[in-house]
């Protein structure tokens, strides 16, 4: 079983940056793990008769809750000491306060900023109206994009810095499933800038490419139409 230890495999020249380290989450054994065989490509499509903004609001709120929950499972390991910056592979994120001023912060602080600002938005009746007859603001789409960008940062941080812990908790199937659903949803409605997500392109390729339920390239041996069997194999 995977351990919580942080074994850093130093490369021979000792100069390789963190991103060059082996990305455990790309290993087929873990990447193929899912909690459902659901066809996310169909699930994310706007259903007939449902208002686009309602669909975006409802899904964004749900993703926020799931990302928050997934992060909470590893939050005890995401400390100011272990994660001194909000790093994802070689990329470092900074928080910008209301005045647009760059704030230097640790990863847990950054995630805290993300979660409280998103919480504020999704519970703001002027931004995410729930009452009948209330209209969405003109800034709605850009706010949804902003939320998605933040949620992506948190998901990417869990993969790049806390995958071993997620693995030890046997929650990688949940993480993969959430990531696939989130990425395909964002793709369907152009909510994430490809430049933003480039940092995790290798993972996205492994998880979201191919047909079926997004595991096409990783479980080629099992063939199509064998959903039930795939499921058993993953256990
Ligand atoms: Zn962390």
From TrEMBL:
<feature type="compositionally biased region" description="Gly residues">
    <location>
        <begin position="214"/>
        <end position="227"/>
    </location>
</feature>
<dbReference type="GO" id="GO:0005829">
    <property type="term" value="C:cytosol"/>
</dbReference>
<keyword id="KW-0862">Zinc</keyword>
<feature type="binding site">
    <location>
        <position position="162"/>
    </location>
    <ligand>
        <name>Zn(2+)</name>
    </ligand>
</feature>
<keyword id="KW-0479">Metal-binding</keyword>
<dbReference type="Pfam" id="PF03637">
    <property type="entry name" value="Mob1_phocein"/>
</dbReference>
<dbReference type="InterPro" id="IPR036703">
    <property type="entry name" value="MOB_kinase_act_sf"/>
</dbReference>
<dbReference type="GO" id="GO:0005654">
    <property type="term" value="C:nucleoplasm"/>
</dbReference>
<feature type="compositionally biased region" description="Basic residues">
    <location>
        <begin position="1"/>
        <end position="14"/>
    </location>
</feature>
<feature type="binding site">
    <location>
        <position position="83"/>
    </location>
    <ligand>
        <name>Zn(2+)</name>
    </ligand>
</feature>
<feature type="binding site">
    <location>
        <position position="78"/>
    </location>
    <ligand>
        <name>Zn(2+)</name>
    </ligand>
</feature>
<comment type="similarity">
    <text>Belongs to the MOB1/phocein family.</text>
</comment>
<keyword id="KW-0963">Cytoplasm</keyword>
<feature type="binding site">
    <location>
        <position position="157"/>
    </location>
    <ligand>
        <name>Zn(2+)</name>
    </ligand>
</feature>
<keyword id="KW-0539">Nucleus</keyword>
<comment type="subunit">
    <text>Binds STK38 and STK38L.</text>
</comment>
<protein>
    <recommendedName>
        <fullName>MOB kinase activator 2</fullName>
    </recommendedName>
</protein>
<dbReference type="InterPro" id="IPR005301">
    <property type="entry name" value="MOB_kinase_act_fam"/>
</dbReference>
<dbReference type="GO" id="GO:0046872">
    <property type="term" value="F:metal ion binding"/>
</dbReference>
<feature type="region of interest" description="Disordered">
    <location>
        <begin position="1"/>
        <end position="20"/>
    </location>
</feature>
<feature type="region of interest" description="Disordered">
    <location>
        <begin position="214"/>
        <end position="235"/>
    </location>
</feature>
<dbReference type="GO" id="GO:0005730">
    <property type="term" value="C:nucleolus"/>
</dbReference>
<comment type="function">
    <text>Stimulates the autophosphorylation and kinase activity of STK38 and STK38L.</text>
</comment>
